[in-house]
């Protein structure tokens, strides 16, 4: 597939492996690249030639290469042409569309957000088309679009179900392609975030890596062998059935004592309102809990223990090298991080290695960047396992 206006050609499996290695770890000397991929010098030359001719790779200045790549006979390292094309990443929430423009290496060069006043699929696609047109005026080499949606997505094209947008069987990729003339990839937003973190973030270079997101819902992604594990049940609301405390609270959105009931922002707010009669924002509840207000402190404490239990269970069964905690609910760690860590230890073997838990304080532009990375991976590199 040719991606947008950049003129890249379809890649063979060998060319794809070279391009990905340079994209994620470059610039790399030919010697180092051949060593990493187990290729002979002749095979590497054959595979890199079309990548250079299509302007996907370039022979960079030697000074740009890492020191270990410059040992021995001088050679020009290979690097990607990061600005050879731009990519749009959209993250659609209930009330806002967040958008970023990235380079081929996923560096964000622009942000553009618009309020979402309707959930009608055609009107949402109209909005994405208008935002694309605005950004294309300043970034004329847009090569593709990635869209992240909370919900179940089929074939990277159809939103099978989105509880936040009340969508079912919406052909979003087709709708946006009709309005933009650009290739479009649609994916579950957590899956897109996992892809971005695997290539360019906390999971870079790791064999076993997990992502847990908390916010309006709960998301989970797993990477094994350096590749995201996809499954048919992805984002089917597993958190409602992940029982953390069988005697825990029953909320409108989740089974009794489930991770969703205890840990999501809407249900934390519901519990505080039900007990106090006052509707508080999540930030207000965190501040009250930190100040020792009894009911918010109790609810946040239960949420912290639920989070610690989830992290411990993931560690016990998956044994990841690192777990990334992300999402708009991570402020919980600032207020009750010690409770989370204590609960993790209580649910792990006494001699188990400490859990490498990394907290990512971010906004929805990181999720939009994840969608852009999916576009890069699928539309440019043709990576089937994305």
Write the layout of secondary structure elements.
Layout: H1 13-25, H2 30-37, H3 41-53, E1 57-59, E2 78-80, E3 86-92, E4 96-102, E5 108-115, H4 121-138, E6 142-149, E7 152-154, E8 158-162, E9 167-170, H5 172-180, E10 184-188, H6 189-200, E11 208-214, E12 218-224, E13 227-228, H7 259-263, H8 265-276, H9 282-290, H10 294-318, E14 322-326, H11 332-346, E15 357-359, H12 364-380
Parallel strand pairs: 3-6, 6-10, 11-14, 14-15
Antiparallel strand pairs: 1-2, 3-4, 4-5, 7-8, 8-9, 11-12, 12-13
Helix pairs in contact: 1-3, 4-5, 6-12, 8-10, 9-10, 10-11
The counted number of beta strands is 15
Assign the structural class, choosing from mainly alpha, mainly beta, alpha/beta, alpha+beta, or little secondary structure. Answer: alpha/beta
**Order of SSEs, N→C?**
HHHEEEEEHEEEEHEHEEEHHHHEHEH
Low-confidence segments, ≥5 residues, pLDDT <50? 1-5
Spatial order of strands in the largest sheet: 5-4-3-6-10
Helix count, per DSSP? 12
Helix content: 40-55%
The fraction of residues in strands falls at: 15-25%
Q: Termini distance?
A: 15 Å
Question: In oligomeric terms, what are we looking at?
Answer: single chain
Overall form: globular
Main pleated sheet: 5 strands, mixed
Organism: Streptomyces koelreuteriae
Pfam families: HTH_24, ROK
Protein name: ROK family transcriptional regulator
Family: Belongs to the ROK (NagC/XylR) family.
Description of the molecule:
By secondary structure, this protein is an alpha/beta fold. It is 40% helix and 20% strand. It has twelve helices and 15 strands. It has helices at residues 13-25, 30-37, 41-53, 121-138, 172-180, 189-200, 259-263, 265-276, 282-290, 294-318, 332-346, 364-380; strands at 57-59, 78-80, 86-92, 96-102, 108-115, 142-149, 152-154, 158-162, 167-170, 184-188, 208-214, 218-224, 227-228, 322-326, 357-359. A five-stranded mixed beta sheet has the order 5-4-3-6-10. A five-stranded mixed beta sheet has the order 13-12-11-14-15, sandwiched between helices. Strands 7-8-9 form a three-stranded antiparallel beta sheet, covered by helices on one side. α8 packs antiparallel against α10. InterPro entries: ATPase_NBD (IPR043129), ROK (IPR000600), WH-like_DNA-bd_sf (IPR036388), WH_DNA-bd_sf (IPR036390). This is ROK family transcriptional regulator. Belongs to the ROK (NagC/XylR) family.
């Amino acid at each position: 597939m040719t991606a947008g206006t950049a003129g890249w050609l379809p890649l063979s499996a060998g060319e794809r492996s070279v391009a990905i290695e340079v994209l994620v770890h470059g610039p790399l000397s030919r010697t180092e690249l051949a060593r990493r991929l187990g290729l002979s010098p002749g095979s590497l030359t054959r595979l890199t030639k079309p990548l250079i001719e299509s302007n996907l790779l370039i022979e960079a200045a030697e000074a740009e290469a890492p020191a270990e790549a410059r040992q021995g006979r001088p050679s020009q390292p290979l690097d990607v042409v990061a600005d050879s094309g731009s990519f749009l990443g959209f993250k659609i929430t209930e009330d806002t569309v967040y958008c970023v423009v990235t380079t081929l290496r996923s560096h964000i060069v622009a942000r553009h957000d618009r309020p979402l006043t309707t959930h009608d699929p055609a009107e949402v696609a109209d909005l994405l088309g208008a935002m694309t047109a605005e950004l294309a005026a300043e970034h004329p080499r847009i090569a593709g679009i990635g869209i992240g949606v909370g919900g179940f997505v089929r074939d990277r094209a159809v939103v099978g179900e989105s509880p936040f947008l009340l969508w079912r069987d919406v052909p979003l990729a087709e709708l946006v392609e009709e309005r933009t003339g650009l290739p479009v990839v649609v994916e579950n937003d957590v899956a897109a975030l996992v892809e971005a973190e695997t290539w360019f973030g906390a999971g870079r270079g790791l064999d076993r890596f997990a992502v847990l997101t908390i916010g309006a819902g709960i998301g989970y992604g797993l990477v094994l062998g350096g590749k995201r594990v996809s499954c048919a049940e992805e984002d089917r609301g597993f958190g409602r059935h992940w029982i953390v405390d069988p005697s825990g609270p029953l909320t409108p959105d989740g089974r009794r004592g489930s991770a969703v009931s205890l840990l999501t922002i809407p249900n934390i707010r519901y519990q505080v309102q039900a007990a106090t009669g006052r509707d508080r924002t999540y930030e207000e509840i965190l501040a009250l809990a930190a100040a020792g207000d009894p009911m918010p402190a109790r609810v946040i404490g239960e949420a912290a223990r639920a989070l610690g239990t989830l992290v411990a269970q993931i560690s016990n069964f998956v044994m990841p090298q690192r777990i990334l905690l992300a999402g708009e609910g991570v402020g919980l760690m600032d207020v009750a991080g010690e409770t989370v860590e204590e609960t993790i230890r209580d649910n792990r073997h006494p001699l188990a290695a400490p859990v490498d838990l990394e907290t990512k304080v971010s906004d929805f532009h990181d999720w939009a960047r994840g969608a852009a990375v999916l576009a890069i991976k699928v539309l440019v590199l043709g990576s089937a396992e994305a």
